[in-house]
Amino acid sequence: MTTTASARPPRTSHTADLTRAELREIRALLDEAFDGDFSDEDWDHGLGGMHALVHDDEGRLLAHGSVVMRRVRHRDRWLRVGYVEAVAVRPDARRTGLGGRVMAELERVIDRAYDAGMLSASDEGAALYTARGWEVWSGRVCALGPQGVVRLPDEEGSTFVRPALAGPLDPAFELVFDWRDGDVL
After folding, report:
1. By CB neighbour count within 10 A (0-12 exposed, 13-18 middle, 19+ buried), where does 138 fall?
2. What is the pTM (predicted TM-score) of this model?
């Protein structure tokens, strides 16, 4: 089992600065960590932003996460949201603090560059985000689709928010996410 002591400090890099080999290594980690349930659309959603990567002393990728920009309407304002995607830790390195190290880097980016941070958590990942101060969004979750605003009740209860530059958000007003292919959130 890998420990945090044998892991290098997290490195952040934009998608554009990652090599093809690094991108293949990240995708392999995600496929392994999600037991093959990480789709091409999920992969696409995690690209185009900043990545946090943790390697061991031998250069093997142990953990990854990315933050990409999304547009989300809250009240009458479209926010620049740092949306967290593709957070994973290699199975033999779980429960060693690596997920928290990845999140700390992504939160640093969110806090300095975005109006808010948001993510959609699996049941397995929710404890990590809650422990780090992320809050479950208690309001409605929607997306702006081809036919207009569509409510996403399946995302309610699993959407987490981290206030950043915009300050606290009011759950009395819905979040309306920009549309994207595949899973909307």
Report:
1. exposed
2. 0.93
The total of other beta-carbon atoms located within 10 Å of residue 68's CB is: 20
Length of the chain: 185
How many CA atoms within 13 Å lie on the side-chain side of 112? 7
Rounded Cα distance, 113 and 165, in Å: 8
pLDDT at position 185 is 53
Strand partners, 118: 83, 161
Nearest to 69 by CA among 168, 164, 173: 164
Q: Inform me whether the pLDDT recorded for 1 exceeds 70.
A: no
| pLDDT of 124 | 86
Q: How far apart are CA 55 and CA 18, in angstroms?
A: 14
